[in-house]
Amino acid sequence: MENKSKGRFGVHGGQYIPETLMNAVIELEKAYDHYKNDPEFNRELTKLLNEYAGRPSLLYYAEKMTKDLGGAKIYLKREDLNHTGSHKINNVLGQALLAKKMGKTRLIAETGAGQHGVATATAAALMGMECVVFMGEEDTKRQALNVFRMRLLGAEVIPVKTGTATLKDAVSEAMREWTRRIDDTHYCLGSVMGPHPFPTIVRDFQAVISKEIKEQMLELEGRLPDVVMACVGGGSNAMGTFYNFVNDPQVKLIGCEAAGRGIDTFETAATLNTGKLGIFHGMKSYFCQDEYGQIAPVYSISAGLDYPGIGPEHAYLHDIGRAQYVAITDEEAVQAFEYLSRTEGIIPAIESAHAVAHAIKLAPTMKPDEIIVVTVSGRGDKDVAAIARYRGEEIYE
Amino acid sequence: MSKISQAFADKKAFIPFVTCGDPDLETTAKVVRAMEEAGADLIELGIPFSDPTAEGPVIQAANVRALSGGVTTDKIFEFVKELRKDVKVPLVFMTYANVVYSYGTERFVKRCVEVGIDGIILPDVPFEEKEEFAPACRANGVDFISLIAPTSEDRIAMIASEAEGFLYIVSSLGVTGTRSEIKTDISAIVEQVRKSAKVPCAVGFGISTPEQAARMAALSDGAIVGSAIVRIIGENGRDAAPYVKEYVKSMKDAVREA
Q1: Domain count, chain B
Q2: Chain A partners of B146 at a C-beta cutoff of 8 Å?
Q3: A320 CB near a chain B CB, below 8 Å?
Q4: Which CATH number fits domain A56-85+207-390: 3.40.50.1100, 3.40.50.720, 3.10.450.710, 3.30.70.1140?
Q5: Chain A closest-CA separation from residue B102 CA (Å)
Q6: What per-residue confidence (pLDDT) applies to A3?
Q7: What is residue B184's DSSP assignment?
């Protein structure tokens, strides 16, 4: 039997979506295949990335952190310095431009921490498009500041009350909305997940991160790093950080998942450490689920990593052993959040703090002539109130 | 001809849906028997899923009620086995890919045969991905039922030519749930379907009134109703069976005259 399935990474990926959406993803794939090689499209996108989002982002040598930890040299890839405060803008500018070329006038998006929602609302404002963002009701409370930012940017924010009222429910609701209204609407998916071609499109738009790391590292150190690492929810900043190093076997790739209260508890979101193979949200990949395939109500202090699945390309890199995925607890992430703030004067997003936490563990075990690059995917302003609450202090945002 | 296709022989079929275990399996058993007595030609049994992305609010709520009542895939297989002691009407499962996949597709389909399930509908498995499930179904004589949507257009012939059991025509864009009006040109879709399909086709999504059912059945080979029935169960809980029976009878009467 001929295999008609598209967008596979090993056994992972595919297009497990309702028939209603099939022509929409086929149309998207055709448009993307056309525009990705279109010089005019790429010129416009590069202009937006450089002049609007502020790329290239800095590769910063964290000297104090390096000396304090006493091991490998640590560089931080500063995606937190991008316009809107995270790596999400890289993908959103690409998809919004593509949607516009396709004649779409309306963007819909899911968001967890609110970073992707803010980025989408921003791109919509810039390009004169309508924007609706779905956000779990639980997350609208955890990230109230970002909800207001999105509204300020002219987007409509719809709190999703179903299920666990977090990121996975926001994705489900955005998919439902897309089946309702396809003609004028592009679903601007925020991570390297969902049905083909999204994992590929989002990865390509985020690959600018590793492209720049490579160039900057060669310029600064004259060689490639030994380790690159990033936090993983759906996995877009990690995929962007890994992509241009996948074929450099000497570079170790490490993804940092959210262990929540621990991978031996039910309050975790560490998909590769606790999940099993399944089919959900348009893709075959690993998911946190029970023995009957019911998706687990995952938990993490970080709304952006609070997702029961992982992008199919990560699942594949895990299967073939090319990348390693470690689990970081809430407590470790909060400590890293505080550590980076104090040591380097950089307040990272609580998501990115998961990667920083692993660097804190790993660097002392490495030699001073070895190099780690940690992607700081976003800035932590949005998390300050939540961290204060975690430490027992009630403050008003 | 499969048992499912036979359900359409010489008549327009009325196909009701119920979520298993909403609010418990005893109620579902009464509801299924009431549906058969009221003249249902084929019954869709929903296996609840935690995140039913093709469902509107009514069936989403039924999934939550059923799962919080503790129903599982194994309990549903046992329930169908018990049901089959007297229920003769063809039965199909409607659920999501992960429910089948996590159970083990081959094992799931074999259990279907053992307990007397005639077909499977997975709304999150389009034509391109059906080889994940269809071969196991084919090998065991269970129909893998395909869906056609208002957006299918140039895909209709491809889907219809490989269809088994019956073709499920989705009447409208969006998720399941009742609609005041169905705007899609169903007759144009049916016309295209009939050029390629060897099996009958029925229309579902958005149908709640006898008038709508009659109109959709007149244009195709049958009408499928889910949310309107699930709403009756949601409102009447464990006492829902007689109300469902009355409703299904009125719908079947309308379809019969179509």
Answers
A1: 1
A2: 19
A3: no
A4: 3.40.50.1100
A5: 5
A6: 64
A7: S
- Determine contact, residues B81/B46, Cβ cutoff 8 Å: no
Phi-psi category of residue B104: left, alpha or beta, with phi > 0 → left and psi -120 to 50 → alpha:
left
Domain topology for A14-49+87-202: Rossmann fold (3.40.50)
Stretches in chain A below the pLDDT threshold 70: 1-3, 396-397
Could you read off the pLDDT of B49-78 as tens digits, one per residue? 999 999 999 999 999 999 999 999 999 999
Instruction: List CB contacts (< 8 A) between A4 and chain B.
Output: 127-129, 131
DSSP A363: G
> pLDDT tens digits, residue range B224-255?
999 999 999 999 999 999 999 999 999 999 99
Please state, in angstroms and rounded to a whole number, the distance separating the CA atoms of residues B112 and B124.
19
CA–centroid distance for B28 within its chain:
15
In the structure encoding, which two tokens stand for residue B76, read together?
């549903």
Instruction: For residue B73, give how far its alpha carbon lies from the nearest alpha carbon of chain A (Å).
Output: 7
d(C-alpha A311, C-alpha B211), whole Å: 46
ipTM of predicted assembly, 2 dp: 0.96
Looking at residue A1, what is its pLDDT?
A: 42
Do B152 and A22 lie within an 8 Å CB cutoff? yes
Quote the pTM value: 0.97
Domain boundaries, chain A: 14-49+87-202, 56-85+207-390
Residue A32 to chain B, least CA–CA distance (Å) = 20
CATH of residue B234's domain is 3.20.20.70
Is A22 an interface residue toward B (CB < 8 Å)? Answer: yes
Q: Answer yes or no: are the C-beta atoms of A314 and A350 closer than 8 Å.
A: no
A4 contacts B53? CB cut-off 8 A: no
Q: Which residue in the list A88, A168, A214, A284 is annotated as catalytic? A: A88
The string of pLDDT tens digits covering residues B14-56 is: 999 999 999 999 999 999 999 999 999 999 999 999 999 999 9
Mean pLDDT score of chain B: 96
